[in-house]
């Protein structure tokens, strides 16, 4: 299964480079605009470029835990071909897709444990966004909750200085009873973002929380209301509202973490001053 394959630090092909840990596609060194689903599909195809990826595999990797129509897959493949060229992804009739661009200069793939140890050694702040809880029996609310979580992931990926875990990894904990500290340990992250979507008669309330993974302590919480009949249209606005309030709190939490480190750790001290400057700019 695609989700069980160790990720490479970098996959290069032609003018392009995939950076899985950063969830970025670079074209000629410039970050490309790419949605979360399209990125996960590209990563799945590139990692398994030595073979055909079936449609079921691709759907499972890009939409874990969801039942979606195949046309969603076609839409994402089309978006990737517009970025990479029409011949970058071959359609294998009746089977699936194959990534056709030749990769070069690939860094040897580490296993999960060595990736976590490397992150710990560099003291990089890591964060994962968990699936939002759905407080409604309406399936449309469920789709909205997943869309919001994905938008938050996509927006957090643009925040410099933080290493974001892909939604394919964090969404694997959907419906599990594991505690937050245990989830954080398994994902190897310092911070968790979780949330919920609750439906009332004419209103949807979206709640989001930032949790310190080591202690399980709530670092920030916020709620956002939207008319129920326009929530889907306002999904991106709601996600941006969450990020607008979440990002400075995340930065402040990281400052507090760094303050607890020894000042002799010059790298940590430098990151501290960078974070202070970021908060000053954000107000």
**What order do the helices and strands follow?**
EEEEHEHHEEHEEHEHHEEEHH
Could you report the average pLDDT, rounded to the nearest whole number? 77
Instruction: Calculate Rg over CA atoms.
Output: 19 Å
Given this structure, which CATH class of the largest domain is correct?
A: Alpha Beta
Given the C-alpha coordinates, what overall shape results?
globular
CATH architecture of the largest domain: 3-Layer(aba) Sandwich
Distance between the termini: 45 Å
Q: Strand tally, please?
A: 13
What is the H level of CATH, i.e. the homologous superfamily of the largest domain? ABC-type transport auxiliary lipoprotein component
Helix-and-strand structural type: alpha+beta
- How many structural units, i.e. domains? 2
Instruction: Give the % helix.
Output: 40-55%
Output the number of helix runs: 9
Query: What kind of sheet is the major sheet?
Result: 6 strands, mixed
Strand content: 15-25%
CATH topology of the largest domain: Rossmann fold
Low-confidence stretches: 1-6, 105-122, 262-266, 279-283
Describe, in short, the structure shown.
This protein is an alpha+beta fold and 283 residues long.
Description of the structure:
- This is TolB-like protein.
- Keywords: DNA-binding.
- GO terms for molecular function: DNA binding.
- It holds the Pfam family Trans_reg_C.
- InterPro entries: OmpR/PhoB-type_DNA-bd, Sig_transdc_resp-reg_C-effctor, WH-like_DNA-bd_sf.
- By secondary structure, the chain is an alpha+beta fold.
- It has 2 domains: 98 residues, Arc Repressor Mutant, subunit A (Orthogonal Bundle), CATH 1.10.10; 171 residues, ABC-type transport auxiliary lipoprotein component (Rossmann fold).
- It is built from 9 helices and 13 strands.
- Strands 8, 9, 10, 11, 12 and 13 form a 6-stranded mixed beta sheet that branches.
- A hairpin with a 2-residue loop joins strand 1 and strand 2.
- Helix 1 packs across helix 3.
- The longest helix has 25 residues.
- It starts with 10 loop residues before the first strand and ends with a helix.
